[in-house]
Amino acid sequence: MLSTEQAKTAIRQIQSIVNGGFTDQISQLDAQGRILSDSNVWDGPLASNFRGSTWPETKAALDKAKTELEQLRTQLDKISQDIFTAGGGA
User: Fold this and answer.
1) How do residues 44-86 score in pLDDT, each as one tens digit?
2) Distance of alpha carbon 15 from alpha carbon 81, whole angstroms
3) Between the CA of residue 61 and those of 4, 11, 37, 55, 70, what are the distances in Å?
4) What is the DSSP string of 14-66?
5) What is the CA radius of gyration of the chain?
6) CA 20 to 30 Å from 81, out of 4, 16, 23, 40?
């Protein structure tokens, strides 16, 4: 097995990003998108386009990203253990 310092740094960075609130930021984006999707808050041709296609497509992508990040979070401990216990060399 091979584990370089670069691998160790990368896993620490991934853990920091995922555990540092990235999924919370996705939730915050969702909340603001829902506000803008309310015709009582914003209406007109661009608002209609936003509600009809822009936001639903963006929300689907955000939901998928959040789900995948949550799955990654559950794997991070195993990944981290593997990287940090692997020996150096070829």
Assistant:
1) 999 999 999 999 999 999 999 999 988 998 898 888 888 888 7
2) 12
3) 33, 24, 16, 10, 14
4) HHHHIIIIIHHHHHHHHHHHHHHT-TTT--SHHHHHIIIIIHHHHHHHHHHHH
5) 19
6) 23
